[in-house]
Amino acid sequence: MSVETIDTLVIGAGQAGLAMSEHLGNAGIPHLVLERKRIAERWRSERWDSLVANGPAWHDRFPGLSFSEVDPKVGADDFPAKETVADYFEMFAKKIAAPVRCGIEVLKLERIAGRPGFRVETSAGVIEAARVVAATGPFQRPLIPPVIPAEAGVVQMHSTGYRNPKALPDGAVLVVGAGSSGVQIAEELMNAGRTVYLSVGPHDRPPRAYRGRDFVWWLGVLGKWDAAAQEPGKEHVTIAVSGANGGHTIDFRRLAAQGMVLVGRTDGYADGVVRFAPDLVENLENGDANNRALLDEADAYVARNGLDLPEDPQARQSVPDAACVREPLAALDLKAAGVSTIIWATGFALDYSWMKVDAFDAAGKPRHQRGVSCEPGIYFLGLPWQSRRGSSFIWGVWHDAKYIADQIAIQRSYQAYDASCREAAPTPEKARAQA
Predict the structure, then answer these.
(1) Domain 144-344 sits in which CATH superfamily?
(2) Which of 136-150, 200-214, 222-236 has the highest mean pLDDT?
(3) Which residues contact 132 (CB under 8 A, 6 or more apart)?
(4) Contact by Cβ (8 Å): 4, 126
(5) What is the pLDDT of residues 330-348, one digit of tens each?
(6) What angle do CA 294, 190, 339 make, to 5 degrees?
(7) Is the CATH number 3.50.50.60 carried by domain 3-140+350-423?
(8) What's the mean pLDDT when you consider all of the chain?
(9) Is the Cβ–Cβ distance between 275 and 268 less than 8 Å?
């Protein structure tokens, strides 16, 4: 069997892999990008039908391509639909002439014994690479906590399996997780006439827009996208924000007033009954405090810089608490409540089991510094908080990729020097010829 060789191998052709390819290409570094399915596959087949990007088109994009170039109907302040986002990545790959091979799955990676580089087994053969960038991103393995057994008598699915309300069995729905995915799915189901129970854990709740500016702008000018690390205790706090229906601020209390039943964090299950932690009110109050804090910082920024941005008093208005907030449910009998489906919007786990190298901690998380692994020659890209808060976003991963490409170029220059020294060094053959 012939073995293909390449300087740098990039695994994954989503936003991370394509950003990596652009910078490697600009640096003149020979590379290859492998994708197990199609470019941006997860946007096409692992998201619900009505999903749109959570950031406006002017912000969540690569510097070299606008969404309007892909779809002229998309304005700068619009939230592109998921198919438009997937088309965007495909057009970007063509624009930069990314060397992508689709339909190839990476099965195993290991260091080559006795010489530099890595041996990568794929569904299409073996590739040897001097360097490997794992650009598989943060959405690798859907995570469903082992709380409710499969024999509980209800349909259970991860949010990646949800498509639309009509695709679910008739009946009420319990949505677990109040980040962007969970709350958008829950709201869509409620608007479709379903009885919805939403399990709300700790979360941040920024305004969708304030004083005429989207929250991504506020996080930018306030320096929050560049935060280098999460605040202690907020490692598992999600962000509740939505671009659906033109974009609007998520307000859990308003959703409750409209008929959604809010419950605390899902805590256990026994004999057909789901238990909830007594933390609903605390979680809502902390989310409200996060919202108010950002509004206060925005107001201070406006005053400090003398900006002519209109006041927005509605952003601070609240509604009376619904019964589910005043007296939160401690438990829910699924059968008695008519719950037919449970949707777990509980995030993802990393899965690097195919990488047989010493680059991970005891929990399987990469050990790295800004994507540069502790294992020489291995790099990671697309991780949450890889270098800053914005690392998981399209524009953020582009900047992280630039840094990694620079580090690869530096290592290549050291290796080129070493090779030139070996070529210049005298050998017995050269000595005899000179004599």
Answers:
(1) FAD/NAD(P)-binding domain (3.50.50.60)
(2) 200-214
(3) 8, 9, 10, 11, 109, 118, 120, 377, 378, 379
(4) yes
(5) 999 999 999 999 999 999 9
(6) 120
(7) yes
(8) 94
(9) yes
Query: For residue 47, how many other CB atoms are within 10 A of its CB?
Result: 20
* Beta-carbon-side half-sphere exposure of residue 205 (alpha carbons within 13 Å): 24
* DSSP letters spanning 85-112: HHHHHHHHHHHTT--EEES--EEEEEEP
DSSP state of 184: H
> DSSP per residue over 40-79, as a string?
THHHHHSS-TT-B-SS-TTTSS-TT--HHHH-TT--TTS-
**Three-state secondary structure call for residue 238:** strand
Q: How many Cβ atoms are within 10 Å of 1's Cβ, its own excluded?
A: 4
Query: What would the pLDDT profile of 294-333 be if each residue is shown by its tens digit?
Result: 999 999 999 999 999 999 999 999 999 999 999 999 999 9
pLDDT for residue 135 is more than 80: yes
Per residue in 172-194, pLDDT tens?
999 999 999 999 999 999 999 99
Burial letters 70-81, b for 16+ CB under 10 A, else e: bbeebeeebbbb
Nearest to 256 by CA among 290, 273, 280, 237: 280
Q: Tell how strand 172-176 and strand 196-199 pair up.
A: parallel
Could you report the per-residue pLDDT of 353-408, keeping only the tens digit for each? Answer: 999 999 999 999 999 999 999 999 999 999 999 999 999 899 999 999 999 999 99
Q: Is the dihedral of CA 239, 242, 243, 247 positive or negative?
A: negative
8 A C-beta contact, residue 360 and residue 367: yes
Cα radius of gyration (the chain)? 25
Q: pLDDT tens for residues 233-255?
A: 665 678 999 999 999 999 999 99
Start and end residues for every CATH 3.50.50.60 domain found in the chain: 3-140+350-423, 144-344
pLDDT band at 426 (very low <50, low <70, confident <90, very high): low
8 A C-beta contact, residue 52 and residue 180: no
- The Cα 109–Cα 245 span in angstroms is 43
Tokens at residue 248, please? 């609007």
Burial of 433 (0-12, 13-18, 19+ CB in 10 A): exposed
Which is it for strands 339-344 and 348-349: parallel, antiparallel or unpaired?
unpaired
pTM: 0.92
Whether 301 and 221 have beta carbons less than 8 Å apart is answered as: yes
